[in-house]
Amino acid sequence: MSIVERAADRLRAQAPAPLTGPSAAAREGQVPPVVTTVERALESVSPARSTGIGDAAASEERGSASVVVSVDVPRFRQMGLQPTDGDAERRLADELRRVKRPLLANVLGRGPEPVPRSAYVMVASALPGEGKTFTTWNLARSMAREPDLEVLLVDGDIPKADITRALALTGRPGLSEVLSDTRLNPADVTLTTDVANLRVLPAGKYHPLTAELLGGQRMDDVLEMLESGGRRRVVLFDSPPLLTAPEAASLSAHMGQVVVVVAAARTKQQEVALALETLAHTPYVGFVLNMSQMSSLDGYYYNYGSYAQRESGT
Predict the structure, then answer these.
(1) N or C: which end of the chain has fewer CB within 10 A?
(2) Interval 42-93: pLDDT, tens
(3) Burial class (CB within 10 angstroms; exposed 0-12, middle 13-18, buried 19+) of 110
(4) Would you give the end-to-end CA distance of the chain in angstroms?
């Protein structure tokens, strides 16, 4: 039995309570039981130009000080990005504490071994409709409750940009513009939200060379600027699906940690295996089982370690 098969068996055996993602009806465009957030018109702000990485913190204060993004919870619920009732919200909060602990331990240097680029965390899935954006948004909210960290949520799913739409930021400059224009400092288009310790970088306008931009040297420079916000920061990316969008592989090459969302009774074992192959060089990969109907158990979050360890069976 391969390591992927053993991992899949373990996921099925542990089958913890899911992050309650959007239902099949929600994915088909019907009114979903869970929804996403923020319909608010924001005044346009012209981004300032900067080339110095050392200017990132000061530029961030200048660039977004006049705009605070208000998170419209009813909108997020309508879009299927947050639970619709208090009990589900509390269960989700408990589940996410288990998800974020190993990630934050790596960020803070408290994990079993050092993880390069641990502050760069990407949430992905093998295919669309498995709950990755739901997981990303709620994981960002959970991490933002940590008193010693700031979370920068980046909408890296430039083709779809669900988080950008939910926050009513469509049309604003974001990651795409930062990558395609070396004169633009990402801090100038990073926005403060009314959720404490949570900032956001929108997706920006779709670019035909998005995959190449995400995989280039400019992306490394942007990441360095994103991390230098003054406080200790986790940079959390929502990613396109690993098996349907070349942008996902390009983005994952820069990440220290990747969380793969697996839909219970939906994601096939072969799809999980193929998704793992795209993460060959990611130092730390974990899986989240979503949409399960079973009660919450320890092991909801399962760490697979490095790809080299997985291949050798250690």
Answers:
(1) N
(2) 222 233 333 344 444 444 544 455 689 999 999 999 999 999 988 999 999 9
(3) exposed
(4) 14
pTM, two decimal places: 0.77
Q: Please state, in angstroms and rounded to a whole number, the distance separating the CA atoms of residues 159 and 251.
A: 13
Q: How far apart are CA 241 and CA 57, in angstroms?
A: 31
- A 10 A CB-CB count for 133 gives 27
Backbone φ and ψ of 285, nearest 5°: -130, 135
Distance CA 184, CA 171 (A): 16
| Band (280; pLDDT cuts 50, 70, 90) | confident
Q: What are the C-alpha distances in Å from 203 to residues 158, 225, 293?
A: 5, 17, 33
C-alpha to C-alpha distance for 183 and 309, rounded to whole angstroms: 40
Of the candidates 291, 242, 272, the one whose C-alpha atom is nearest the C-alpha of residue 135 is: 291
Alpha-carbon distance of 59 to 187, in angstroms, equals: 6
Rounded Cα distance between 136 and 309, Å, is: 26
Residue 58 region by backbone torsions, left for phi larger than 0, else alpha for psi between -120 and 50, else beta: alpha
101: number of Cβ within 10 Å: 12
Please say whether the beta carbons of 291 and 264 come within 8 A.
yes
Residue 273's CB is within 10 A of a number of other CB atoms, namely: 16
Name the token pair of 290.
């979503």
